[in-house]
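Researcher: Good morning. I'm working through a list of sequences from a screen, and I'd like to move beyond sequence-only analysis. For each chain I'm collecting a predicted structure so we can compare shapes side by side. This is the next one on the list. No need for commentary yet; just the structure.
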Amino acid sequence: MGDGSHRSSPEAVGGGTITAAREYQIGQESTAGTAVAATAKLAIQEEDLTFNDDGSTQNPVMADGVLLPSTGHEINTRHGTTFTLNDSPVTLQQIPWWLSMAVEGLTAGDGDVSDPYTWTFERARTSVPAFKSCTIERRIGDGGASNVIDDEWAYCFLTELRLGGTDGGLVTVGGNGVARKTDRSGSQTGSQSIPSTLEHIPFALSKLYVDAAFNDVGTTAVTTKVLNASVAIPTGFLPKHTLDGRSNLDFATHRFNPRAFTPTMDLTVMLDHSTTAFPLDQAYTDALTLTGNWFRLEFNSGQTHNMHVDFFGKALRPAINHGSDDGQDVVQFTLALSDDGTNAPFTVRVETDSDAFQ
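Model: Good morning. Structure tokens for this chain:
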């Protein structure tokens, strides 16, 4: 947000706001919690990103002879904000913003010299992960330039990220996050626009690969008939309010809880009876729960680029549930993240047309 720019009060927005006139903008912070000007406009639906106050107020009730529930000694003890990104269509050009706040903090693509550029977000086995926090701006208005409410949140990061979709729809992203308290002292960063090239991802083009060895991951395509998929990623990151913290009672730092990083992958696939990759027998079910496999869920835009999730997992009991969909046999199972003792067990790789955030 710029300093000193005009910003109207909520009462100045006429008889109400128009939801479709909302705008969301984002910028990556060099120092976590130090707000920056936006460098991009988010291509999201207007009601899919919501912010809620997460502060705390204490109300000590003194014995001062009044018959009231409060004796006027309220005091704020904590400030902060939570935000929710509803599961909504994602583009390959902008998914790096969310992955950098959740999986691994990248500042640019992986160094390719031409299109396609790759972004590899990886969780290592033995090193503490680091995200890159963002500043998010929101403008609420009636479509005009003057009757607006501009809000800003610094130190935004995700505590949970979700990727998934259903046959007939688009691949979606969703999640939950935290930020510092709302700042309403400035105005929206100007001259930002939604990228001119956006690649949404039809879920029907998804593929599932299963391989036993890391060096073979993405080799054996077991089916192109993925009916629905959901990858839930509790990030393990959390805000910490500490002694000698911030004078305005916002959280001062963050920490990583490795035991809270518990990704799962839920899949429903339609399988031919002739397949050997997923034989419909109890022996295979037992093996899947005890022996880890490398799963790759590939999302293809059908245009130029794709995204895939590599996941070393074992099936949770009940391991495989058989069902039907429009008269066809389907298999449903949930995978839990495991460890092969050597390789990073969770990676998301994205191809885009730029090595910069868009």
